[in-house]
Amino acid sequence: MPSLMHTLHVELGERTYPVYIGRDLLADSSLLAPHIAGSQVVIVSNETVAPLYVDRVRSALGARQLITEIVLPDGEQYKTLDTLSGIFDRVMADKHSRNTTFVAVGGGVVGDITGFAAACYQRGVNFIQVPTTLLAQVDSSVGGKTGVNHPLGKNMIGAFYQPQAVLIDINTLHTLPARELSAGLAEVVKYGLISDQAFYRWLQESMPRLLACEEAALAEAIERSCAIKAQVVAADEREGGLRAILNLGHTFGHAIETGQGYGKWLHGEAVATGMLLALELSARRGWVAAAEVDGFRELLLGMHLPVRIPDDMDAAMFLRLMAHDKKAVDGRLRLILLRDIGEACIVDDVTEAELSDLFAAR
Fold first, then answer.
1. Which residue of 27, 224, 321, 328 pairs with 56 in a disulfide if CB–CB is 3.0 to 4.6 A?
2. Average confidence (pLDDT) over 52-78
3. What is the pTM of this model?
4. Do 3-175 and 178-360 show the same overall fold?
5. What is the pLDDT of residues 153-178, one digit of tens each?
6. Catalytic residue among 254, 269, 280, 334
C-alpha cells in the first residue's frame, strides 16, 4: 500500500476534486481508476518522463478497452498549437469517444497542453493530472489553467478546465534535475510571499533541506503550497479578482520567457526574477522594507536562481512584451505587488515611468 500523507480538495461545488499527495502513488489503482468513467484512456507524456513513469501509470489503469500513449518532445518550445493538433490526430485516428479520459504524466508543459486538449476534444472530456515536477505539483496541475503559447505571449491560447483529480507522487522528484527543482521551489516561495509570512520564514530556514530533497521537508512544502492554491482557486476559479495574486512575478517572468525564446529560461527561473522585480517595485512604493528585498535576493541566490534580467532586454522591450500579457485589463497593466511579506495586492496604476526607472536601476 502507498504511504498517503494527505488529501486536499479544490472546492468547486459539483466539480470539486481531490489532490492526493504522498509516496508511491503512481501505481495505486485505488486512487487513479475511480476517476476514469469509461474504458478509453489517452496517456500524454514526454520523451523524458515517459520511460520513467508511464508504465506504472498504465498498470494502475487496469484493463481498458483502449489506451493510447502519446509521447511529446520535451520542452517549453513545443507547447504550441501544432503539438496540440498532433494530439488530436492520434486521438481521432484511434477513435476515442467523448467518454475517454486524458491523463497528463509530466511537468507543466504536458499538463497544460493535455488539459487544453481535453477541454477541446469533442467539446470537453475528463482528464487527470499526474505531475512529475515540483513546479507542476505546486502550481500548474492545480486550478484548471490549461493552454499553449503563442509567439507574442505565453499561455495566450487556452481555457479554464478543471481535472477530475491530481495525483502527486513525491518520489518523482528524485529523478528531477537540480535546475528544475530550484525552478519549482521558486513557485513554492511565491505562496509564502503572497499569503503566508510564517510559511515564507519556514522556507527561508528550510531551503537547504529542500534543495537536498529531504522528503519530509518537500512533503510539507508541497502540501502547504497546494492548500494555499486550492483555497484561492475555490474563492475565484476564473481569476476575476483574488486569484490574480497567484501571478506574483509572472507578468515580468512571462516577458522574459517570450523575449528570450520559450525554453531558454525555465518558467520558475523567470518567475523568480519577476518576483524580485515585484518586491523592488513594492519597496520603491514604501510597502516592503529594503531588508526584505535584500533577504529575498539572497534566498534566490542560495537557490541557484537568476536575480538579473537578461542583458539583451531593456525597458522598452519589457514594456512592449508586458503590454501583450493576458492579465492586462482594458489596456491597463495589472501587476501583483506586496504591501508586506504575506500580503499581496493587485494594482493597475503602475506607470511607465515607474517601470522604466525600475529597469534602469538594474
1. 27
2. 95
3. 0.93
4. no
5. 889 999 999 999 999 999 999 999 99
6. 254
